[in-house]
Amino acid sequence: xxxxxxxxxxxxxxxxxxxxSRGLKRSEGHREGTETIDRLLDHxxxxxxxxxxxxxxxxxxxxxxxxxxTAIFNLLNEFIVKKLEKMVANGVxxxxxxxxxxxxxxxxxxxxxxxxxxxxxxKLTANFCLNYGARDELHRAAAAWATTSAGKSLKVPTEKQFxxxxxxxxxxxxxxxxxTAGEQRLSNFMLYQAAYAExxxxxxxxxxxxxxDVDAAVAEFMRRKRKFGGL
Length: 231
Ligand code: FPP
Known about the structure:
Blueprint: E1 7-11, H1 15-20, H2 26-47, E2 51-58, H3 66-90, E3 92-97, H4 105-117, E4 124-132, H5 134-148, H6 159-163, E5 176-179, E6 198-201, H7 211-223
Parallel strand pairs: 1-2, 1-5, 2-4, 3-4, 5-6
Bound molecules: farnesyl diphosphate.
């Protein structure tokens, strides 16, 4: 009997296209995308998938216009303020990946509070990837490895040793990686953790992504045969 994925990663793409095709501002697409995150968490709780990683803001997204960056972080703040009680009640645990020091002060404070308030959540770990880039994560891990071996000649780390230096070492590997809006790229997301992930793509934009799409991706995952390099 194939097992359900334990860890789903999502590249939430197409907010801008969803908005502009409706004559709306791009930030309206991000707002709608935030509602999709809320619905996704509810559905993952319902179908008992315990880990999700969400690519919310990449190290490259700083190249966007300042107004759009501000709008995204304001939506993150609003999301935390509005949904924290519900997440605590539902057993959601919030963690993050990425260097938060570059985020606006208010977002950092709200995230710190949210992580503390949800720390005991047992049902679903939601990993918000913010100012996240896989290369940045790996460069930092390499530097940390070099630091731990200071003075000694560097050994090649084992997978177990190296994983400890990543942002969220205790999350299981990604089983299923979903990207919306018709693009089929990894865009610097979780390059280490997704080494054996099954990939699933949909033409739907992120605001259009529904519980039925999660079910379709999970059903497809369960039909696939995973070999991890074996036969
Ligand atoms: C991709 O769409 C989406 C993003 C870069 C940002 C995702 C952000 C949110 C869903 C809102 C933030 C809220 C929380 C709770 C983290 P795009 O803008 O790249 O779309 P496009 O490719 O159509 O332009």
